[in-house]
Design a protein that fits this description.
This protein has about 90 residues and is mainly beta. The chain contains one helix and six strands. The chain has one helix at about 20-30, and strands at about 15-20, 35-40, 45-50, 55-60, 65-70, 80-85. The structure holds zinc ion (ZN).
């Protein structure tokens, strides 16, 4: 029962694990937790809300279309900001 299994075909750098601890705190204020993702090639910050099923965060570069799947799980990082080289 690992939601991450579906992402096996992604490139190794296309998936990152995050914990849900920080987003729970953020949820008190914001309603829905989110991550901030910076895409280098587009030079843009994206505000990525948690997916509806709560399993993670899915971001896509607005310029090159690179997809990044942030999976929520134990042992992940409490980081809320990520920079993607693409
Ligand atoms: Zn890109």
């Amino acid at each position: 029962m690992d939601a991450g299994q579906a992402d096996r075909n992604s490139s190794p750098d296309g998936r990152l694990d995050v914990t849900d601890a920080g987003s729970v705190a953020a949820g008190r204020n914001a309603g829905r937790p989110f991550l901030q993702v910076f895409f280098r090639c587009a030079n843009k910050y994206l505000h990525v809300p948690r997916s509806a099923d709560g399993s993670g965060y899915r971001a896509m570069c607005p310029l090159c279309g690179k997809r990044v799947n942030f999976v929520i799980g134990p042992g992940g990082t409490p980081q809320r900001f990520f920079e993607i080289s693409c």
